[in-house]
Amino acid sequence: MDLKPIYFLVEALDGDYARLRREDRPAAEPRLVARALLPGDIREGTRLKFELFEYTIAE
After folding, report:
1. Is residue 47 pLDDT above 70, yes or no?
2. Do 31 and 19 form a contact (C-beta atoms < 8 A)?
3. For residue 3, what pLDDT is reported?
4. How far apart are CA 25 and CA 59, in angstroms?
5. What is the reported pTM?
6. SS (H, E, C) 9-31
7. Is the pLDDT of residue 2 over 90?
8. Contact present, 44 and 11 (Cβ < 8 Å)
9. What is the dihedral of CA 26, 28, 33, 38, to 10 degrees?
10. Which pLDDT score is estimated for 1?
């Protein structure tokens, strides 16, 4: 099993959800994620890291 982190870009914020685009698969459909699962201070354009089932702001 490959447990490398996956990086996303916050494409849009829409109410209680955010559309996230995978950086390594830009042509893929965006992932719709509940904002409650994301860091509270995200904005459109924020880069996120998904690792061990947790989203954090990437540095």
Report:
1. yes
2. yes
3. 83
4. 20
5. 0.90
6. EEEEEECCEEEEEECCCCCCCCE
7. no
8. yes
9. -20
10. 63
